[in-house]
């Protein structure tokens, strides 16, 4: 008889007979498919996403600089590889490119565009961005009322500012404050439009423009226009304004953007957010796949282990190996397809919910638009197929020992649990544990994201090793608790000790998911909490200022800093700037580019206002061409005062500043600390928006604050000066918030880590419950037999409670031990402290595991105890 009909018959009967056992697997399969589909869709939507096109929506093409820096190196094994990172500061286009593009055949108009921050000191107040009215046609922003500006003191404002034609508004832009006449109200939001000449002057870079929008002649399609413009730029060899100082591997030729790519020329924050989110989602998705494989394989193997006797009987009465494999495979296929498809369907709203959470949490800039074309949703069929494939592979491996056994020996091989496991399993587990410890050791030698990645890899590797060593862990735990159970547990304790000793493989299967959920959740929560706590402590310790003034838009009014420095009672003024640098390096031999947040400070105000914690060198030497490096970064790069470090600023400029000092508080103040003027030269808009003040000895900070606000309001250049304290865009803080730098991807990482902990934590809790349910279903006959030979309900219930406690304690202890190794390495490498977990979160982990273990142990066998 052929294998197919027999396999179909056996699969159908087995599915009906063991419906209760398979129901525990169904939930895990649905959740696995949901998680895999949701993260796959999120990765796809992010990869296909683009910067939103707003101000250039009417332009057929946009010419701008390449905002990407590159680093090419030879990885291990030869060849050549290139790493890329988006730049956060504007690289501009030479002005002569405007005249060149106006002469290109097919170009109807080449419109230069530059934007700059504007503070509205009258009307409804607030911050806006300024540009020329000429550039408004690229949106297009049409006039709703009034006319276009024709003089230097005339402006058009966006609707919603509360201004009307004829109103007089006080605007601060380009380092000066003036009164302008509103002559029109236009579409758009938070925009102020000037004449072309006035906008060029206020932008502050007359020889360059941010971008050039191109309008095509009628009949010229976008592809043809792009080709003509590209040819004209290449023939003229036009390069961006930073071409002379950019890294050797960077592309300095101007780019021609069309379609959705036009948004890249206006939304500079979109590209860094996209790359950071892709990396984080990829890492989380990899973890999800590994955990899904581990959990599903464990559950399917446990479901088949419950039926080992039945499968062995089929083999003993003549079922061929291929018939057994085919029967089990078909059974698993019928069980898994429905839940996998259900999870795939549910993954679609889960993906949109995750993207919405990232958006609302500030992890995605408003200018980034994830893309989800209809064909992308076909990926959920792939993830559903992957879920089914994992289940079938686990079933094949689970039935293979019985399928290969000789018919005469099949029943004997399954009569009892093997006393000795295969040596290969023990060797594999020990090797994985050793690799995990080695990865944790690597984390101690690294810093930042590299240390976090090494710690995460160590935890996952050790969890898989513990899964392989599950029976040995169970036997060890049983030996530890057997003596007190037998001595003090009474009949229930002796029963629990005997059952645990005889069912080490079963107990190991129950402990493994507890270890998994404990280790994973502990690593995710503790690493984040440790880093956040250490950074907050450093920020508090670094803050020495008595007062702080913050401003929005164009920053403090012109000349304000000079007036503030001369205020009686002011001992030091620190004008703080925030920026980014890109550090080129290698990870596992491959080239990498790491973007880091940095501060620019006033050196002579340190440490009266902001104390970085000097370790080596002198902060007094901080100035042009120098930098202070964080201690951990200096250690990992083997840097000391006097050495040089090669860096790329946010505008692509590559420099090798000399290390003037090494500072301690890098988690709060950044890995690299520059003099303000040094960093300001590489920022798009270096405005004074955050200023720290130290009071002279004997001066009351509250009184000094009042004098500072009086100096700010009493601007001799303003005939309509406001009353003290009336500046709507300037805020005085008498108890300054500690300065704390946060990496661009940290917010997205925190949100994704929270989602991962919730989703994977729930998934593994379901796995614990499902595994214990499967074990309980398989133990019903044995428990009925114990009842028949005289065991009481209370004794059996006590035995099961003791086993649940054993599973809980062993899983928590082993899981905590697995997490402790990488966490200790990570905490030492990044924060020089011990791992920290909020007590409430620790109690929640213990409580959830205990309740889950008790429910999974007692509920499936409640009928057998009657």
From TrEMBL:
InterPro entries xrefs: ABC3_permease_C (IPR003838), Macrolide_Exporter_MacB (IPR050250)
Protein's cellular compartments: Cell membrane
Keyword terms, alphabetized: Cell membrane, Membrane, Transmembrane, Transmembrane helix
Domain ABC3 transporter permease C-terminal span(s) in chain numbering: 284-392, 756-866
One Pfam family here: FtsX
Record-annotated membrane-spanning stretches: 276-301, 332-355, 375-397, 427-445, 451-474, 507-527, 751-777, 798-828, 840-861
Keyword field contains Transmembrane: yes
Main location, first listed in the record: membrane
Keyword Membrane: yes
Membrane topology note: Multi-pass membrane protein
Family of this protein: Belongs to the ABC-4 integral membrane protein family.
UniProt name for this protein: ABC transporter permease
Originating organism: Streptomyces cavourensis
């Amino acid at each position: 008889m052929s294998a197919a009909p027999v396999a179909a018959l056996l699969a159908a009967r087995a599915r009906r007979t063991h419906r209760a056992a398979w129901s525990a697997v169904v939930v895990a399969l649905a959740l696995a498919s949901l998680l895999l589909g949701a993260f796959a869709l999120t990765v796809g939507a992010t990869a296909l996403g683009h910067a939103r096109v707003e101000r250039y929506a009417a332009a057929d093409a946009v010419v701008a600089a390449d905002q990407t820096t590159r680093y090419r190196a030879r990885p291990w094994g030869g060849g050549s590889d290139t790493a890329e990172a988006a730049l956060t500061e504007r690289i501009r286009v030479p002005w002569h490119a405007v005249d060149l593009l106006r002469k290109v055949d097919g170009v109807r108009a080449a419109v230069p565009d530059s934007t700059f921050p504007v503070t509205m000191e009258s009307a409804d107040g607030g911050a806006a961005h300024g540009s020329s009215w000429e550039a408004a046609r690229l949106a297009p922003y049409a006039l709703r009322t009034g006319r276009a500006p024709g003089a230097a003191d005339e402006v058009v404002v966006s609707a919603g500012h509360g201004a009307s034609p004829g109103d007089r508004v006080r605007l601060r832009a380009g380092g000066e404050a003036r009164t302008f006449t509103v002559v029109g109200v236009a579409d758009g939001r938070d925009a102020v439009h000037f004449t072309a000449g006035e906008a060029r002057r206020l932008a502050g870079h007359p020889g360059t423009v941010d971008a050039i929008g191109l309008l095509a002649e009628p009949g010229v399609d976008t592809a043809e226009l792009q080709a003509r413009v590209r040819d004209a730029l290449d023939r003229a060899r036009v390069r961006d304004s930073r071409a002379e100082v950019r890294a050797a591997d960077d592309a300095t030729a101007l780019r021609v953007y069309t379609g959705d790519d036009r948004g890249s020329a206006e939304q500079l924050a979109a590209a860094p957010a996209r790359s950071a989110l892709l990396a984080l989602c990829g890492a989380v998705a990899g973890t999800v796949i590994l955990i899904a494989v581990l959990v599903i394989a464990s559950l399917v193997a446990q479901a088949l282990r419950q039926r080992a006797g039945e499968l062995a009987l089929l083999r003993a009465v003549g079922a061929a190996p291929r018939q057994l494999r085919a029967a089990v495979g078909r059974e698993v296929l019928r069980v898994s397809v429905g839940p996998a498809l259900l999870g795939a369907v549910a993954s679609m709203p889960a993906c949109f919910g995750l993207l919405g959470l990232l958006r609302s949490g500030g992890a995605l800039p408003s200018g980034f638009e994830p893309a989800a074309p209809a064909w992308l949703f076909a990926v959920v069929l792939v993830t559903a197929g992957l879920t089914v494939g994992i289940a079938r592979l686990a079933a094949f491996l689970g039935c293979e020992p019985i399928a290969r056994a000789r018919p005469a020996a099949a029943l004997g091989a399954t009569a009892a649990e093997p006393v000795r496991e295969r040596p290969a399993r023990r060797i594999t587990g020990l090797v994985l544990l050793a690799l995990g410890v080695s990865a944790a050791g690597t984390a101690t030698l690294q810093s930042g994201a590299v240390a976090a990645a090494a710690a995460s890899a160590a935890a996952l590797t050790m969890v898989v090793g513990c899964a392989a060593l599950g029976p040995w862990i169970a036997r060890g735990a049983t030996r530890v608790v057997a003596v007190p159970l037998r001595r003090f547990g009474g009949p229930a304790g002796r029963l629990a000790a005997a059952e645990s000793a005889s069912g080490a493989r079963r107990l190991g299967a129950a402990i493994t998911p507890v270890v998994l959920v404990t280790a994973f959740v502990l690593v995710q929560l503790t690493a984040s909490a440790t880093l956040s706590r250490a950074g907050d402590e450093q920020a508090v310790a670094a803050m020495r200022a008595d007062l702080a003034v913050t401003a929005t838009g164009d920053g403090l009014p012109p000349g304000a800093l000079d007036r503030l420095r001369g205020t009686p009672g002011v001992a030091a003024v620190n004008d703080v700037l925030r920026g980014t640098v890109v550090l080129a390096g290698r990870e596992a031999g491959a080239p990498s580019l790491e973007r880091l947040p940095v501060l620019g400070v006033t050196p002579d105000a340190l440490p009266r206002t902001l104390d970085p914690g000097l370790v080596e060198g002198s902060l007094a030497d901080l100035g042009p061409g120098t930098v202070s490096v964080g201690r951990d970064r200096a250690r990992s790069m083997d840097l000391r005062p006097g050495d040089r470090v090669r860096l790329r600023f946010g505008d692509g400029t590559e420099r090798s500043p000399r290390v003037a000092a090494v500072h301690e508080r890098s988690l709060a103040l950044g890995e690299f600390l520059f003099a303000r003027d040094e960093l300001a030269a590489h920022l798009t808009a270096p405005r004074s928006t955050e200023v720290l003040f130290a009071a002279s000895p004997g001066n009351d900070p509250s009184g000094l604050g009042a004098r500072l606000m009086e100096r700010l309001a009493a601007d001799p250049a303003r005939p309509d000066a406001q009353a003290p304290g009336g500046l709507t865009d300037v805020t005085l803080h008498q108890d300054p918030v500690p300065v704390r730098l946060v990496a661009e991807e940290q917010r997205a990482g925190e949100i994704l880590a929270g989602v991962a902990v919730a989703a994977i934590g729930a998934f593994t809790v379901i796995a614990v419950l499902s595994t214990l349910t499967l074990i309980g279903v398989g133990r019903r006959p044995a428990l009925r037999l114990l009842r028949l030979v005289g065991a009481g309900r209370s004794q059996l219930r006590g035995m099961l409670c003791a086993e649940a406690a054993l599973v809980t304690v062993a899983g928590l202890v082993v899981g905590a031990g697995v997490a402790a190794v990488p966490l200790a390495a990570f905490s030492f490498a990044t924060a020089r402290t011990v791992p920290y977990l909020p007590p409430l979160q620790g109690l929640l982990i213990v409580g959830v595991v205990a309740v889950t273990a008790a429910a999974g142990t007692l509920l499936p066998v409640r009928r057998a105890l009657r």
